[in-house]
Each structure stands twice: as structure tokens, then as C-alpha cells.
Amino acid sequence: MTESYARSMSPAIDVSDRRHRLLRAAGELFAERPYDQVTTVAIAKRAHVAYGLIAHHFGNKRGLYLATIEHAANSLREARAAVLDQATDPVERLRLALDRHIAYAEDNAAGFLAVLRGGLGADDDVQDIIETLQRGVIQQILDEIGATEPYPPVLRTVMRGWLGYFNEVVIDHLRHRDVPRATLVDLAVSAFRTAVATALDTGDVAIDPRIAELLDGRSR
Fold first, then answer.
1. What's the predicted TM-score (pTM) here?
2. Whole-angstrom Cα distance, residue 169 to residue 185?
3. Which regions of the protein are recorded as binding DNA (predicted)?
4. 146-161 burial by CB neighbour count: b if 16+ within 10 A, else e?
5. DSSP per-residue codes, the chain
6. Domains in the chain and their CATH numbers?
7. In whole angstroms, what separates CA 151 from the centre of its chain?
8. Minimal CA–CA distance to 4: which of 21, 20, 19?
9. Considering the chain, what is the average pLDDT of its residues?
10. What's the CA gap between 138 and 144, in Å, rounded?
């Protein structure tokens, strides 16, 4: 038994720490390999905890996978929301939220990729977690620009398209790390402005004209 493994089995290690180790290790492995190629033995080994703790905390591999996805989604929401009181300009608030989103992805690449890939693609519970996260991102941003529910269909559509674009930008960034974060934010904001401007041009979307001007860049 290695020294690190022995330490992980020590009663001095908090139970919540062992659970967190399992979530972190599972996030890494699910991001590296397809779901079917990840074993609970491999997860426990990477987490340096007893194999039986997976059943104790999560029931089985699927339960651990769902917990991994939900943990990453919640952490991402908290990281993004934490910056929204740092600016009053809606575009600057958007930039801060996107920057924090990318920073979180950089610091937690495995969990972030596990969320976006959703290895159990046909699993309703996984899809519910991912869909709730996606809706939350869209709603947070639309609230920032003064749109109200029910959102016009064209606005909902362009926002889903923009979010898909932004997700792919972040995935590419995590794979290559060769574009500065500030540039990624510029790209995302520019695409967002274009998407919203296109929606406004249909005449079916109404938001505060002052915010529309900011989004269109006329005040900058």
C-alpha cells in the first residue's frame, strides 16, 4: 500500500473530501474516455479511495456519473453568477460572465468536457441536467439584456445557436490553448451581438432600446 493510498484510508480524511475526490477522478476519466470504457475500479484507484465508497456515496457508476455532471454544472453556474455584480453595463456584465465561464473551463477542463459531451447521450437524467444548465445560461443572459419570458421564438432560436457556437469555441480552446481568453470573449460577444441584432431585425423581438444600442455597438 502506497503512502498516499494509506493517507486516503485514514480516518482523519473527511468523508466529504473522499466524495470530492471521487467526483474529481470520475470527471477526469469520463472526459478522457467513453462512458463504457470507464470502470469504477479505475475511478477509485485514481481517487485513492476504497472501491466500496462509490457504492456508499453514489450507488453505482451511473449514479457517480450523474453526480459528476451535476456537480460540474452547479460549479459552473456559481462561477458565472459570482461576477455579475461587478459591472452595471450589460455588455460588460456579459463579458465578465463569459470570461468567468472560460476561466472555470480552463481550471476544471475534465468536468466541463464531461458536461458538454454527456457520455450517456440517451440518458434522460443526463440530458435533463445539461438542458437545465443550457437554459440557465440563456435565461441569465436574456435577463441581462432586458428580455422577458415568454421569450419570442426567434430570440430563443438564435440564443440556442449562439450558445452552441460558444460551447464549441471553449472546447477548441481546451484542446489547443493557443488563443488568449480575451480574444475568445471578443469572439463570443461579437457573435452574440450579431445574433441578437438579427433577431431584432425580424421585428418580433422587443428589448430596452438603450440596451439594443449597446448590443449593436453604437454607444462604443
1. 0.71
2. 10
3. 39-58
4. ebeeebbebbbebbee
5. --HHHHHHHSTTS-HHHHHHHHHHHHHHHHHHS-GGG--HHHHHHHHTS-THHHHHHHSSHHHHHHHHHHHHHHHHHHHHHTTTTS-SSHHHHHHHHHHHHHHHHHHTHHHHHHHHH-SSTT-HHHHHHHHHHHHHHHHHHHHHTT--SSPPHHHHHHHHHHHHHHHHHHHHHHHH--S-HHHHHHHHHHHHHHHHHHHHHTT-----HHHHHHHHTTT-
6. 3-59 (1.10.10), 68-216 (1.10.357.10)
7. 22
8. 21
9. 79
10. 10
What band does 14 get if pLDDT is binned at 50, 70 and 90?
low
Please state the length of the chain: 220
Residue 4 clears pLDDT 50, i.e. is over it: no
Is the per-residue pLDDT at 106 higher than 80? yes
CB 106 within 8 A of CB 89: no
- What b/e sequence results for 85-120 when a residue is b if at least 16 CB atoms lie within 10 Å of its CB, and e otherwise? eeeeebbebbbbbbbbbbebbeebbbbbbbbbbbbb
166-210: pLDDT as tens digits: 999 999 999 999 999 999 999 999 998 888 888 877 777 666 565
Distance from C-alpha of 73 to C-alpha of 152, rounded to nearest angstrom:
26
Q: How many CB atoms lie within 10 A of CB 145?
A: 19
pLDDT at residue 84 greater than cutoff 70: no
Q: Which amino acid is at 29?
A: L
